[in-house]
Design brief:
heterodimer, A: 592 residues, alpha+beta, 6-stranded mixed beta sheet, 5-stranded antiparallel beta sheet, 16 helices, 24 strands, disordered N terminus, B: 328 residues, mainly alpha, 13 helices, globular
Chain lengths: 592, 328
Amino acid sequence: MTRSTLRPLLASVVAALALVVAACGGSNSSSSGGSSSGASSGAANQETGGAKTGGVLRQLGSSDVDYLDPGHTYYTGGYQLVYPTQRTLYSFKPDNGKDPVPDLAASKPEISQDLKTITVHIRKGVKFSPPVNREVTSKDVKYAFERFFSINVGGQYPSYFSSIVGAPSKPTKGVKPISGITTPDDQTIVFKLSQPLAVSVSSALVMPISAPVPEEYAKKFDAKNPSTYNTHVVATGPYMVKNDASGKLTGYQAGKSIDIVRNPNWDKSTDYRPAYVDEIQWTTNESDASIAAQQVLTGSHQALDTNPPAAQLKDAVLNRKGQFVQLPGGGYRYFPLNTTIKPLDNVNVRRAIVAAFDRDAALKARGGKFTGDIPTHFLPPGIPGFEEAGGLKGPGFDFLKNPRGDMTVAANYMKKAGYPSGKYTGSAKLLLVAANADPGKAQAEVAKAQLEKLGFNITFRTVPQDAVYTEWCQVPAKQVAICGSAGWFKDFTDPQSMLEVTFKGKNIVKGGGNNNLAQLNDPKIDAAMDKASTLQGDARIKAWADIDKQITSDAPAVPFDWDKTTLIWSKDVQGVGNPYYDALDFSFTSLK
Amino acid sequence: MSAGAPELLTGADEALTIQAAGAEREIAARSPMQLFWRRLRKDKVAMVALGFVILIVLTAVLAPLIVKIAGTPNPQTTNADLTDDFGQPLGPRAGHPFGVDKLGRDVFSRTVYGSRVSLEVAFIATALIILIGVSVGLVAGYYRGALDTLLTRTMDLLLAFPVLVLAIGIGVACSGKDGCAGGLIQPGLTVVIFVITLTTWPYMARIVRGQVLSLREKEFVEAAQSLGANDRRIIFREILPNLVAPIIVYGTILIPQNIIYEAALSFLGVGVDPSTPSWGAMISDATTIFKDAWWFMTFPGLALLLTVLAFNLVGDGLQDALNPRTGK
């Protein structure tokens, strides 16, 4: 779970979770997804043909990017900057957030039979921006990987690449060579793995780590702690942050603005990006989100960096067709039900809770149907396996049928669980912990009301946002029965990464930092996961869709929101959002 | 009643003046209570405010009945049908005279029930403050010396604390399942009451101490001492009754102050369980959507304003009536 676009909400949770996400398998296929979650009016704007070239786009934002350094960034803002300015080995076109396309790579990765070797050929003719100016070679990608593991750079998702032979298990002092990455020639890079995880590692080659970094130029910056390459990044994509002759990023004013201009060394013939606009002026110090959103909607040549506040979202949806797009957030928000706590250890009690739950009310507490869809299972739209797992309609369990809750179904399950009145009659007190600020607080208040409907006694605690996970929900000893502010979001498009960390019994960590918040421990599910993680292609998708169904049947949580990100822009902007990082794609957006 | 000496004197003065002004009045000795009540009754503003205070107290006591008569839903009842597709609450309408909040809960019911939390906290905290403040003030002022120094320095220390930071800190520290201080301070109301009491009693104690310092030198205390009265008798029978007026006056000023304090703490999220209706918490929740849902902040805000104003005016009236010399 990373790069949530709801940054004020989940920033720290996101970071905490991201660090422990295990490396997972990849591969892609399947249909729809991208537009399935109600992209409706925005969908037309994703067509990019015949757009005008030139002009200056202004993006208004209230927060700075996390890092400009592709080896360090792990957040929406940083990603939004990385992808139009860097050529990662693979990347996502705006119209398909599931299947990566070769970017710096010339073709799909070659995976060996034993799933232990990945070979990637890279394109000729891609050059670094000034002051480096030379052609990119495979050694620049190798260096990018090596520096990622250095303590000075502080790469934030090493677990995805820990299976590479010789990959450091903890941050290194200085940049150390990794023996498992070799460059037989300037156009080839080979990754040797210690385990048969080539499918998952290759699907992670879309991440910013794979953007090339010129060693001879970056070495002096990387020698410092922290690395000052962050303010001396050179670009390979169509755009670059404005810099001076030494490479210093003069266009970057921390906490104020980022000035993004064309990269003179970019060769259009090597790239799929159209790169329409000439310049992007990105302010990162807007003090009032509502005012900024209003300016964008009524102004000219502007776009907003993230979801607009409710009032402007309403205005856009109701009155401004063509000025917004909605992208699937690639994650699910849920109320985990702690399966180790009585009476939640009874599957029928959990099903009754899910059945009774007015999930529409919980979604409304987050902003309603334009900010997300009500899940019918866990695998979210935009992730392979979503359709196979039942799509929006879901696998058809009666307890997830009515988004407004169904007390009759709930009563039936309560009876099955041994409560003849159809309501809970015991005396157990269930601890519900949530953030003390909206929307986390509001959604948890809904949860409390829903549980009380069924007769449960709830102890409700609100704690600061950053403590919800680290001090409470992730610490089994705290006996949190229901976690009031949980969400799980993709790093890259893979069903395994969406389910394994959160629902595998073996992943329960008793001491703290536990991410299987429901502490679901179903040996059948664990066995199915072990098997599915070795599969490839369609079989893999199918296997994970089946696992999704089993998990849903176990009712370890109340899923209530498949997030959507809404991007808005001015009337004279042809905005294009990228579903991989849920932000405007500068290299596809144009002015009218 | 030697205790009432100063009050009786001022009372007698005024009684004489009244008698001089209105010759037709009969000369009669009035008890200090009667005099106080006569003066208070003449203060129209204070009487209106007192009426409102009684109304608020009745509202708090009879909240379930009022909500039942008004026909509005229970304050805890959420209803997603009363928010639009964007999760924005609907405004005042039939059945919901004050509109609803973000979760579709009735703002009228919540405002009515909110008076309970406000008054509960205000009265309990004020009582505790008076109890602690008067005890400490009496001891410090009467015994003086090292004990006084110790207590006064403790008060100074507490007064120097950044109150809100302390409140938030304690609120967070005690938010666990078992509370803190061995379970004595539970999350929710007791945290609020504890924080308010802890940071406010020194004000009361200082006022009392100052009074005691001067009272203990008065002749009637000397007289009592020379008659062989012990400390306990002097403190409780000679000095304490003379402190009733300042205690009442300061106590009534404390009540609205504590209401605001509770609202502020709830606003900051340190207060009661969020589903419990509290004016401060309602105002806090409403801030983010004020532009689209004015009713959500307006009604609890008005309730808070009027309640605080009423208590303040009653406090002023009491002060004037008890200490006519400080009056206008």
